[in-house]
Every structure is written in structure tokens, then in C-alpha cells.
Amino acid sequence: MIVVAGEALIDLVPQGTGALAGLQPALGGGPYNTAVALGRLGSPTAFCSRTSRDAFGEALLDGLRGAGVDVSAVQRGTEPTTLAVATIDAHGSAAYSFYVDGTADRLFRAPAELPEGTRAVSFGTCSLVLEPGASAYEELLRTAAAQGVFTTLDPNIRAGLIPDADAYRVRFKSWLPSVSLLKLSEEDALWLGGTPREWLAAGPSAVVITQGGDGLTVFTRDGSVHSVPGEKVDVVDTIGAGDTVNAALLHGLSARDALSSEALAGLGADGWTQLLRFAARAAAITCSRAGAEPPYAHELDG
User: Fold this and answer.
1) CA 276 to CA 46: how far, in whole Å?
2) What class, spelled out in words, does domain 2-300 have in CATH?
3) How does pLDDT run across 234-267, given as a tens digit for each residue?
4) Residue ranges of the domains in the chain?
5) What is the C-alpha separation between 134 and 140, in angstroms, rounded?
């Protein structure tokens, strides 16, 4: 079982030119998209979060169930669902404005225990910024790592939600001893101001950096660097692409029985190249569709 911990929200996505061109609600949130992508790929997956009892919250849970994701660990509340208004540029890249005050996911509390059979837990995005829930997710990260569970982190920086950038950077570094695999975009890496080697020295066994259409690169603790190019595709938008990479990496590692720091060290050049190519292919399919619509396993066969 792979557990994804973090927010579920509603993206309001424009359907034409202009900032308010037919805004269409879409199920989203980085962790949510990762969980849906894992479910579609066929990995046993559970979602650990807190959602509203409003219509948006019900739709979010329905989307998870439709992907085969276990929602028994999802907490519920009467507060409204977080909203994110997307702006899509000429290259399909998305920027977001968030409406987060008093929303349900901010009141997440760390569970007493993880679902039975948990082999990995994935964290990231807004859930590690917005208090008081951020501290609860941080507690869960540290607890899972202390229990020997494989952990992944995708900070997926949303700078507009971070009131004190320097304080966040310090907090980010404090998470690294509890992280097995760190994945981030090259934009996030620049914003954080560190280097893969610095982050590896702090804890993770591998750091994967996404470079948009240029592909993915992994840096490993033994000093190796492996890269693959991006898959060529007509980009509709990039919503959910990074989340799809998260899911593809976890799914691929699980299929290889490699959800441990020791197993990561043994993947070698061939193993990492195959895994990164799989992730690049999955992300390309997501980019070819409007909104966060990750692929199903049969779309990646071969």
C-alpha cells in the first residue's frame, strides 16, 4: 500500500482566452493528483487528508474512489473546500491563486497509525505550508520515517502561500533527514537555493529533478547522475504533470520491490533510466490533456 498525504482541492481552470474565460471546476491538489495517478496505474493506494462535506468534497472523494483509491483514512469537516484559480500561459504552464482561509484541509490532524500494509508515504505541496495542518503532516512524515517507512517529498512550491520564504527554506531542510526520495522541479530547486548534493548529504537516497519538456535527472548518493529526455507531445497544459511523475516513480519502484534506501542504491544506470523514461512518458500523456488527467496503466503498456 502506498499512502499519499496532503490536500485535495478544486482547480478553477479557464476554458478559453482571458482570465475568467469559462472557469471550469476540476478535481485537483498535488497530493490528490498523485493518489489518482497511482490508482490509475494499478498501485494499491490510500489517501490521507481532510476534506469538506460540501459538494466539492464529495466530488473529490468520488474521484478517488473511481481511481480505486482507499479513502478510509480521509478525515471530514464542515468547512469549505480550498479553491485554486489557474492561469494558463501560452506554453501551457499553469500559475495559481489560492483561496484557503478557513478551509477543511487546513485542519488535518496526524492519524494515530498508518493504514495496514503501508510501504511508502508521499508528501508535498500546500499541505506542508498551511497551518495548523502543516505541522500535522510534518509529524506524520517524521513518524513514518522513524518507523522505517519509505517516504517521498515533492515541495511543489507555491510562493504566494509562503509568508516567510527564508523560514520555509529552513523548515524544508529540517524535513530532509526523514525523506527517502526527494523530487522537485528545476524551478523549485532554484527557489529553494540548494543543490542536489547538499540535499543528498542531509538525508535522501536520491533526488529527482524535472526539467519540463527537457526531461528528468536523478542524482544518487553514490555520486551517479542519470538523465532522460522528455517525451515529445502537443502540450494542452501542464496541470498535474509533476504529480504524475511522483506517481510513476512510486509505482515503478513498487513494481521493482525497491521502496527502500538500500534498493534505490542498487537500481543502477539501467534501472534508473527505465524508471525515468516511464515517468517522462506518463507525464507527457498528462500534458496532452486538459487539466490533471493522468494516464491509466494500459496507456503506458510497451
Assistant:
1) 24
2) alpha beta
3) 887 778 899 999 999 999 999 999 999 889 988 9
4) 2-300
5) 10
